[in-house]
Protein backbone atom coordinates (compact mmCIF):
# COMPACT_ATOMS: atom_id res chain seq x y z
CA UNK A 1 0.00 0.00 0.00
CA UNK A 2 2.83 2.42 0.85
CA UNK A 3 4.51 1.64 -2.48
CA UNK A 4 1.29 2.37 -4.38
CA UNK A 5 0.77 5.69 -2.57
CA UNK A 6 4.32 6.84 -3.32
CA UNK A 7 4.16 5.53 -6.88
CA UNK A 8 1.07 7.64 -7.49
CA UNK A 9 3.04 10.76 -6.52
CA UNK A 10 5.66 9.81 -9.10
CA UNK A 11 2.98 9.36 -11.77
CA UNK A 12 1.54 12.80 -10.95
CA UNK A 13 4.96 14.45 -11.35
CA UNK A 14 5.79 12.56 -14.55
CA UNK A 15 2.37 13.35 -16.02
CA UNK A 16 2.83 17.07 -15.45
CA UNK A 17 6.37 16.96 -16.80
CA UNK A 18 5.12 15.14 -19.92
CA UNK A 19 2.38 17.76 -20.30
CA UNK A 20 5.04 20.47 -20.43
CA UNK A 21 5.17 21.59 -16.79
CA UNK A 22 8.84 21.14 -15.93
CA UNK A 23 12.37 22.26 -16.74
CA UNK A 24 15.93 21.87 -15.49
CA UNK A 25 14.74 22.36 -11.89
CA UNK A 26 12.59 19.23 -11.99
CA UNK A 27 14.73 17.46 -9.37
CA UNK A 28 14.14 20.33 -6.94
CA UNK A 29 10.42 20.23 -7.65
CA UNK A 30 10.32 16.45 -7.21
CA UNK A 31 11.95 16.77 -3.81
CA UNK A 32 9.40 19.38 -2.75
CA UNK A 33 6.47 17.41 -4.11
CA UNK A 34 7.58 14.21 -2.42
CA UNK A 35 7.16 15.93 0.94
CA UNK A 36 3.54 14.95 0.34
CA UNK A 37 4.49 11.45 1.50
CA UNK A 38 3.91 12.92 4.95
CA UNK A 39 0.20 12.35 4.30
CA UNK A 40 0.67 8.62 3.66
CA UNK A 41 0.18 7.64 7.34
CA UNK A 42 -3.28 9.23 7.26
CA UNK A 43 -4.33 7.03 4.34
CA UNK A 44 -2.81 3.97 5.99
CA UNK A 45 -4.69 4.61 9.23
CA UNK A 46 -8.09 5.55 7.78
CA UNK A 47 -10.73 3.02 6.77
CA UNK A 48 -12.32 3.07 3.35
CA UNK A 49 -15.17 5.53 2.94
CA UNK A 50 -16.55 7.99 0.42
CA UNK A 51 -14.22 10.52 2.03
CA UNK A 52 -11.24 8.23 1.44
CA UNK A 53 -11.99 8.25 -2.28
CA UNK A 54 -12.42 12.03 -2.38
CA UNK A 55 -9.47 12.68 -0.07
CA UNK A 56 -7.08 10.63 -2.16
CA UNK A 57 -8.24 12.40 -5.32
CA UNK A 58 -7.47 15.77 -3.73
CA UNK A 59 -4.14 14.40 -2.49
CA UNK A 60 -3.11 13.85 -6.10
CA UNK A 61 -4.41 17.27 -7.12
CA UNK A 62 -2.43 19.01 -4.38
CA UNK A 63 0.73 17.10 -5.26
CA UNK A 64 0.30 18.34 -8.82
CA UNK A 65 -0.20 21.93 -7.67
CA UNK A 66 2.93 21.86 -5.52
CA UNK A 67 4.90 20.57 -8.51
CA UNK A 68 3.50 23.38 -10.68
CA UNK A 69 4.49 26.11 -8.19
CA UNK A 70 8.16 25.35 -8.84
CA UNK A 71 7.76 26.20 -12.53
CA UNK A 72 4.93 28.72 -12.61
CA UNK A 73 5.80 32.03 -14.21
CA UNK A 74 2.83 33.71 -12.52
CA UNK A 75 3.67 36.31 -9.90
CA UNK A 76 2.14 35.05 -6.66
CA UNK A 77 4.05 33.95 -3.56
CA UNK A 78 4.82 30.35 -4.47
CA UNK A 79 6.22 29.36 -1.08
CA UNK A 80 3.16 30.74 0.71
CA UNK A 81 0.91 28.92 -1.76
CA UNK A 82 2.65 25.62 -1.06
CA UNK A 83 2.34 26.02 2.71
CA UNK A 84 -1.33 27.00 2.41
CA UNK A 85 -2.04 24.05 0.10
CA UNK A 86 -0.47 21.53 2.47
CA UNK A 87 -2.27 23.02 5.48
CA UNK A 88 -5.57 23.07 3.57
CA UNK A 89 -5.21 19.45 2.55
CA UNK A 90 -4.46 18.44 6.14
CA UNK A 91 -7.48 20.23 7.59
CA UNK A 92 -9.65 18.75 4.85
CA UNK A 93 -8.44 15.18 5.29
CA UNK A 94 -8.88 15.02 9.05
CA UNK A 95 -12.70 15.18 8.99
CA UNK A 96 -13.23 13.59 5.59
CA UNK A 97 -11.13 10.52 6.45
CA UNK A 98 -11.99 9.98 10.10
CA UNK A 99 -15.63 11.02 10.60
CA UNK A 100 -17.20 7.76 9.51
CA UNK A 101 -19.75 6.78 12.17
CA UNK A 102 -22.99 5.57 10.52
CA UNK A 103 -25.83 8.07 10.55
CA UNK A 104 -29.00 6.72 12.12
CA UNK A 105 -31.57 6.28 9.39
CA UNK A 106 -35.14 7.43 10.01
CA UNK A 107 -36.40 6.25 6.62
CA UNK A 108 -36.38 2.50 6.02
CA UNK A 109 -36.76 1.21 2.47
CA UNK A 110 -37.07 -2.50 1.74
CA UNK A 111 -34.86 -4.13 -0.92
CA UNK A 112 -37.93 -4.74 -3.10
CA UNK A 113 -38.96 -1.09 -2.85
CA UNK A 114 -35.40 -0.01 -3.64
CA UNK A 115 -35.41 -2.21 -6.74
CA UNK A 116 -38.60 -0.56 -7.98
CA UNK A 117 -37.32 2.91 -7.11
CA UNK A 118 -34.12 2.35 -9.07
CA UNK A 119 -36.06 1.14 -12.11
CA UNK A 120 -38.22 4.27 -11.86
CA UNK A 121 -35.00 6.28 -11.86
CA UNK A 122 -34.16 4.84 -15.27
CA UNK A 123 -37.58 5.86 -16.59
CA UNK A 124 -37.15 9.34 -15.10
CA UNK A 125 -33.73 9.63 -16.75
CA UNK A 126 -35.28 8.76 -20.11
CA UNK A 127 -37.86 11.54 -19.65
CA UNK A 128 -35.12 14.04 -18.81
CA UNK A 129 -33.17 12.91 -21.88
CA UNK A 130 -36.17 13.60 -24.12
CA UNK A 131 -36.64 16.99 -22.45
CA UNK A 132 -33.01 17.88 -23.23
CA UNK A 133 -33.32 16.73 -26.83
CA UNK A 134 -36.11 19.26 -27.37
CA UNK A 135 -33.52 22.04 -27.02
CA UNK A 136 -31.25 20.65 -29.73
CA UNK A 137 -28.79 17.90 -30.53
CA UNK A 138 -25.60 17.66 -32.57
CA UNK A 139 -23.88 14.51 -33.78
CA UNK A 140 -20.31 15.83 -33.69
CA UNK A 141 -16.96 14.70 -32.37
CA UNK A 142 -15.32 15.81 -29.15
CA UNK A 143 -13.30 18.48 -30.96
CA UNK A 144 -16.38 20.34 -32.19
CA UNK A 145 -18.45 19.77 -29.06
CA UNK A 146 -16.96 22.63 -27.04
CA UNK A 147 -17.87 25.20 -29.70
CA UNK A 148 -21.45 24.04 -30.12
CA UNK A 149 -22.26 23.34 -26.47
CA UNK A 150 -23.00 26.95 -25.58
CA UNK A 151 -25.51 27.28 -28.43
CA UNK A 152 -27.98 24.94 -26.68
CA UNK A 153 -29.74 27.13 -24.11
CA UNK A 154 -31.82 25.26 -21.53
CA UNK A 155 -33.87 26.31 -18.50
CA UNK A 156 -31.94 26.45 -15.24
CA UNK A 157 -34.24 23.85 -13.68
CA UNK A 158 -33.49 21.40 -16.48
CA UNK A 159 -29.75 21.95 -16.03
CA UNK A 160 -29.98 21.18 -12.32
CA UNK A 161 -32.09 18.07 -12.85
CA UNK A 162 -29.87 16.83 -15.68
CA UNK A 163 -26.78 17.26 -13.53
CA UNK A 164 -28.32 15.12 -10.80
CA UNK A 165 -29.50 12.48 -13.27
CA UNK A 166 -26.07 12.10 -14.88
CA UNK A 167 -23.96 12.67 -11.78
CA UNK A 168 -25.96 10.62 -9.28
CA UNK A 169 -29.06 8.72 -10.41
CA UNK A 170 -27.64 6.82 -13.37
CA UNK A 171 -24.23 6.01 -11.81
CA UNK A 172 -26.07 4.79 -8.72
CA UNK A 173 -28.43 2.71 -10.85
CA UNK A 174 -25.51 1.14 -12.70
CA UNK A 175 -23.67 0.28 -9.48
CA UNK A 176 -26.81 -0.97 -7.74
CA UNK A 177 -27.93 -3.22 -10.59
CA UNK A 178 -24.40 -4.50 -11.24
CA UNK A 179 -24.05 -5.42 -7.58
CA UNK A 180 -27.44 -7.17 -7.73
CA UNK A 181 -26.23 -8.99 -10.87
CA UNK A 182 -29.01 -7.50 -12.95
CA UNK A 183 -26.64 -6.77 -15.78
CA UNK A 184 -29.18 -5.79 -18.44
CA UNK A 185 -30.50 -2.96 -16.26
CA UNK A 186 -26.93 -1.98 -15.42
CA UNK A 187 -26.14 -1.78 -19.14
CA UNK A 188 -29.26 0.32 -19.75
CA UNK A 189 -28.00 2.77 -17.12
CA UNK A 190 -24.74 3.22 -19.02
CA UNK A 191 -26.51 3.53 -22.37
CA UNK A 192 -28.74 6.26 -20.95
CA UNK A 193 -25.74 8.24 -19.71
CA UNK A 194 -24.01 8.05 -23.09
CA UNK A 195 -27.27 8.97 -24.85
CA UNK A 196 -27.06 12.43 -23.30
CA UNK A 197 -23.95 13.25 -25.35
CA UNK A 198 -25.67 14.59 -28.51
CA UNK A 199 -27.76 16.93 -26.35
CA UNK A 200 -25.12 18.02 -23.82
CA UNK A 201 -21.93 17.63 -25.91
CA UNK A 202 -20.13 16.83 -22.68
CA UNK A 203 -17.14 14.48 -22.59
CA UNK A 204 -18.08 13.34 -19.10
CA UNK A 205 -20.98 11.26 -20.38
CA UNK A 206 -18.66 9.46 -22.80
CA UNK A 207 -16.09 8.94 -20.06
CA UNK A 208 -18.77 7.33 -17.88
CA UNK A 209 -19.17 4.42 -20.29
CA UNK A 210 -15.63 3.29 -19.44
CA UNK A 211 -15.00 4.89 -16.06
CA UNK A 212 -17.96 3.47 -14.13
CA UNK A 213 -17.52 -0.19 -15.20
CA UNK A 214 -13.78 0.18 -14.55
CA UNK A 215 -14.42 1.43 -11.01
CA UNK A 216 -16.88 -1.36 -10.32
CA UNK A 217 -14.44 -4.01 -11.54
CA UNK A 218 -11.49 -2.63 -9.56
CA UNK A 219 -13.51 -2.47 -6.35
CA UNK A 220 -14.83 -5.98 -6.89
CA UNK A 221 -11.31 -7.38 -7.25
CA UNK A 222 -9.19 -5.45 -4.76
CA UNK A 223 -9.34 -4.48 -1.10
CA UNK A 224 -11.20 -1.11 -1.00
CA UNK A 225 -8.34 1.21 0.03
CA UNK A 226 -5.98 -0.40 -2.46
CA UNK A 227 -8.72 -0.14 -5.08
CA UNK A 228 -8.92 3.63 -4.51
CA UNK A 229 -5.23 4.04 -5.32
CA UNK A 230 -5.32 1.65 -8.27
CA UNK A 231 -8.43 3.31 -9.73
CA UNK A 232 -6.44 6.52 -10.17
CA UNK A 233 -2.99 5.03 -10.63
CA UNK A 234 -3.74 2.53 -13.41
CA UNK A 235 -5.37 4.93 -15.94
CA UNK A 236 -2.71 7.60 -15.42
CA UNK A 237 0.14 5.08 -15.65
CA UNK A 238 -1.38 3.56 -18.80
CA UNK A 239 -1.82 6.98 -20.41
CA UNK A 240 1.73 8.04 -19.50
CA UNK A 241 3.42 4.87 -20.79
CA UNK A 242 1.36 4.73 -23.98
CA UNK A 243 2.06 8.41 -24.69
CA UNK A 244 5.82 7.83 -24.56
CA UNK A 245 6.03 4.52 -26.44
CA UNK A 246 3.49 5.20 -29.20
CA UNK A 247 4.84 5.94 -32.69
CA UNK A 248 4.71 9.50 -33.97
CA UNK A 249 1.74 8.87 -36.26
CA UNK A 250 -1.08 6.46 -36.85
CA UNK A 251 -3.99 5.09 -34.83
CA UNK A 252 -1.82 4.13 -31.84
CA UNK A 253 -0.58 7.73 -31.54
CA UNK A 254 -4.17 8.94 -31.83
CA UNK A 255 -5.21 6.61 -29.00
CA UNK A 256 -2.17 7.57 -26.94
CA UNK A 257 -2.84 11.30 -27.19
CA UNK A 258 -6.49 10.90 -26.25
CA UNK A 259 -5.71 8.54 -23.36
CA UNK A 260 -3.00 10.87 -22.05
CA UNK A 261 -5.21 13.91 -22.54
CA UNK A 262 -8.03 12.35 -20.56
CA UNK A 263 -6.28 10.40 -17.79
CA UNK A 264 -3.22 12.58 -17.26
CA UNK A 265 -4.18 16.06 -18.39
CA UNK A 266 -7.93 16.29 -17.76
CA UNK A 267 -8.09 14.19 -14.59
CA UNK A 268 -4.71 15.14 -13.09
CA UNK A 269 -3.17 18.30 -14.52
CA UNK A 270 -6.13 20.63 -15.07
CA UNK A 271 -7.43 20.64 -11.45
CA UNK A 272 -3.88 21.44 -10.30
CA UNK A 273 -3.39 24.12 -12.96
CA UNK A 274 -6.65 25.75 -11.91
CA UNK A 275 -5.21 26.27 -8.43
CA UNK A 276 -2.18 27.91 -10.04
CA UNK A 277 -4.38 30.45 -11.84
CA UNK A 278 -6.58 31.10 -8.81
CA UNK A 279 -3.51 31.68 -6.63
CA UNK A 280 -2.20 34.24 -9.09
CA UNK A 281 -5.48 36.07 -9.68
CA UNK A 282 -6.41 36.47 -6.03
CA UNK A 283 -2.90 37.51 -5.04
CA UNK A 284 -3.72 40.86 -6.67
CA UNK A 285 -7.53 41.02 -6.53
CA UNK A 286 -10.06 41.10 -3.68
CA UNK A 287 -11.41 37.88 -2.22
CA UNK A 288 -14.99 36.94 -3.02
CA UNK A 289 -16.03 36.07 0.55
CA UNK A 290 -18.24 33.41 -1.04
CA UNK A 291 -20.17 35.89 -3.20
CA UNK A 292 -19.58 33.62 -6.21
CA UNK A 293 -22.41 31.57 -4.69
CA UNK A 294 -25.66 33.00 -6.07
CA UNK A 295 -27.46 32.80 -2.73
CA UNK A 296 -24.72 34.79 -0.99
CA UNK A 297 -24.53 37.25 -3.89
CA UNK A 298 -28.21 38.10 -3.40
CA UNK A 299 -27.48 39.40 0.12
CA UNK A 300 -24.08 41.09 -0.20
CA UNK A 301 -22.18 43.28 -2.63
CA UNK A 302 -19.71 41.38 -4.78
CA UNK A 303 -16.52 42.77 -6.34
CA UNK A 304 -17.14 40.61 -9.42
CA UNK A 305 -20.13 41.21 -11.66
CA UNK A 306 -20.34 37.69 -13.07
CA UNK A 307 -19.15 34.17 -12.44
CA UNK A 308 -15.44 33.55 -12.02
CA UNK A 309 -15.11 31.15 -14.97
CA UNK A 310 -15.53 33.76 -17.74
CA UNK A 311 -13.24 36.17 -15.84
CA UNK A 312 -10.46 33.59 -15.85
CA UNK A 313 -11.09 32.75 -19.49
CA UNK A 314 -10.62 36.39 -20.45
CA UNK A 315 -7.44 36.78 -18.40
CA UNK A 316 -5.62 33.47 -18.81
CA UNK A 317 -7.17 32.13 -22.05
CA UNK A 318 -7.42 28.68 -20.44
CA UNK A 319 -11.11 28.06 -21.02
CA UNK A 320 -14.06 28.70 -18.72
CA UNK A 321 -12.00 27.75 -15.68
CA UNK A 322 -13.99 26.40 -12.77
CA UNK A 323 -12.06 24.81 -9.93
CA UNK A 324 -12.38 22.69 -6.81
CA UNK A 325 -13.34 23.83 -3.32
CA UNK A 326 -9.64 24.34 -2.51
CA UNK A 327 -9.44 27.06 -5.17
CA UNK A 328 -12.94 28.57 -4.92
CA UNK A 329 -14.23 28.19 -1.38
CA UNK A 330 -10.59 28.36 -0.26
CA UNK A 331 -8.22 30.68 -2.15
CA UNK A 332 -10.88 32.75 -3.94
CA UNK A 333 -13.24 33.18 -1.00
CA UNK A 334 -10.92 33.83 1.95
CA UNK A 335 -7.35 33.87 0.63
CA UNK A 336 -4.46 31.48 1.33
CA UNK A 337 -4.14 32.42 5.00
CA UNK A 338 -7.68 31.38 5.94
CA UNK A 339 -8.14 28.71 3.28
CA UNK A 340 -7.36 25.84 5.72
CA UNK A 341 -10.38 26.82 7.81
CA UNK A 342 -12.64 26.86 4.77
CA UNK A 343 -11.39 23.47 3.57
CA UNK A 344 -11.91 22.05 7.07
CA UNK A 345 -15.57 23.04 6.79
CA UNK A 346 -15.67 21.48 3.33
CA UNK A 347 -14.29 18.27 4.79
CA UNK A 348 -16.97 18.31 7.47
CA UNK A 349 -19.69 18.69 4.84
CA UNK A 350 -18.36 15.86 2.71
CA UNK A 351 -17.95 13.61 5.74
CA UNK A 352 -21.76 13.40 5.73
CA UNK A 353 -21.26 11.15 2.71
CA UNK A 354 -19.22 8.79 4.89
CA UNK A 355 -21.98 8.55 7.43
CA UNK A 356 -24.92 7.98 5.09
CA UNK A 357 -23.02 5.35 3.07
CA UNK A 358 -21.30 3.58 5.97
CA UNK A 359 -23.47 0.46 5.72
CA UNK A 360 -23.12 0.08 1.95
CA UNK A 361 -20.55 -2.09 0.11
CA UNK A 362 -17.46 -0.30 -1.28
CA UNK A 363 -18.19 -1.14 -4.97
CA UNK A 364 -21.56 0.60 -4.68
CA UNK A 365 -20.09 3.65 -2.93
CA UNK A 366 -17.14 4.11 -5.26
CA UNK A 367 -18.94 3.42 -8.53
CA UNK A 368 -22.00 5.53 -7.77
CA UNK A 369 -19.67 8.37 -6.72
CA UNK A 370 -17.47 8.04 -9.80
CA UNK A 371 -18.76 11.14 -11.61
CA UNK A 372 -19.36 13.19 -8.46
CA UNK A 373 -15.73 12.59 -7.53
CA UNK A 374 -14.60 14.04 -10.87
CA UNK A 375 -16.94 17.00 -10.41
CA UNK A 376 -15.50 17.79 -6.98
CA UNK A 377 -12.05 18.11 -8.55
CA UNK A 378 -13.29 20.60 -11.12
CA UNK A 379 -16.12 22.68 -9.65
CA UNK A 380 -16.81 24.41 -6.32
CA UNK A 381 -18.42 22.35 -3.58
CA UNK A 382 -21.46 24.64 -3.70
CA UNK A 383 -21.89 23.80 -7.40
CA UNK A 384 -21.28 20.07 -6.98
CA UNK A 385 -24.03 19.83 -4.36
CA UNK A 386 -26.87 20.88 -6.67
CA UNK A 387 -25.56 21.00 -10.22
CA UNK A 388 -23.52 17.78 -10.28
CA UNK A 389 -25.64 15.46 -8.19
CA UNK A 390 -23.85 15.34 -4.83
CA UNK A 391 -26.99 16.07 -2.82
CA UNK A 392 -29.03 13.55 -4.81
CA UNK A 393 -26.36 10.90 -4.28
CA UNK A 394 -26.27 11.47 -0.52
CA UNK A 395 -30.05 11.10 -0.37
CA UNK A 396 -29.89 7.87 -2.38
CA UNK A 397 -27.27 6.44 -0.05
CA UNK A 398 -29.35 7.45 2.95
CA UNK A 399 -32.45 5.52 1.83
CA UNK A 400 -30.66 2.49 0.37
CA UNK A 401 -31.22 -0.56 2.57
CA UNK A 402 -28.19 -2.11 4.21
CA UNK A 403 -26.51 -4.53 1.84
CA UNK A 404 -23.21 -6.29 1.28
CA UNK A 405 -21.40 -7.88 -1.65
CA UNK A 406 -22.51 -11.27 -0.38
CA UNK A 407 -26.15 -10.18 -0.10
CA UNK A 408 -26.03 -8.92 -3.67
From TrEMBL:
Provide the transmembrane region boundaries: 27-44, 51-71, 83-105, 117-137, 157-176, 183-199, 205-222, 227-246, 337-354, 375-399
Indicate the secretion signal residues: 1-19
Identify the keywords attached in UniProt to this record, alphabetized: Membrane, Signal, Transmembrane, Transmembrane helix
UniProt superkingdom: Bacteria
Task: Report what the protein is called.
Answer: Oligosaccharide repeat unit polymerase
Amino acid sequence: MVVLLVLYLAIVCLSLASAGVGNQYALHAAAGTFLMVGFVPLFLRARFSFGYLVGFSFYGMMAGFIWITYFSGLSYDHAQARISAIASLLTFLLPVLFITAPLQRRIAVSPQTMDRLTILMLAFAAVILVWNVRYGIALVGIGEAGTLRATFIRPALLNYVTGSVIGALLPFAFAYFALRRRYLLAAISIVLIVSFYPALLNKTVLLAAVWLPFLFLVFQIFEPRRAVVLALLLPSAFGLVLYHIAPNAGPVRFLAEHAFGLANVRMLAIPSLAMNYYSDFFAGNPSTYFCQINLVRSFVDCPYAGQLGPIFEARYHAGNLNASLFATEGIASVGPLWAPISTFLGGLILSVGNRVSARLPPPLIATSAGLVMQALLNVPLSVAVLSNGLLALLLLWYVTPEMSDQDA
